[in-house]
Amino acid sequence: MNASLTAAQVKFFADVEQCVAIDTLGALNAQIAELTKQADKIKAELKDAASLSGQKVFEGATYKATFSESNRSTVDWKAIAAEMSIPADLIAKHTKTSAVYTIKTTAV
Asked: What CA–CA distance (Å, rounded) separates 20 from 53?
């Protein structure tokens, strides 16, 4: 029996492998979405409990959750630039652009 594969056979197996990888990625993303939803619900419940009781540390059998609150400030640079009449070409001159890659999975 000849163990060498034709180019078509190699492509077929590569396509099957890619198909399995894509399906695995989609399934993992679906699981992550569901787990994130569950985690967010628990976090909201702990936040409510901490706000009502003042308790900041919650302990389970294996893990401990600590509630903390902080303020985050952001600067609206676009509004500042507009208010100061900074020309668009000057903003463009000091703007960095980088490639961003996204792979989105959807059910077929």
From this structure: 49
Domain boundaries, the chain: 7-72
Map residue 5 onto helix, strand or coil: coil
Reported residue count of the chain is 108
Judged against a pLDDT cut of 90, whether residue 14 lies above it is answered with no
Burial class (CB in 10 A: 0-12, 13-18, 19+), 66: exposed
CA 25, distance to chain mean position in Å, is: 14
Q: Is 35 exposed, middle or buried (0-12, 13-18, 19+ CB in 10 A)?
A: exposed
The whole-model pTM stands at: 0.67
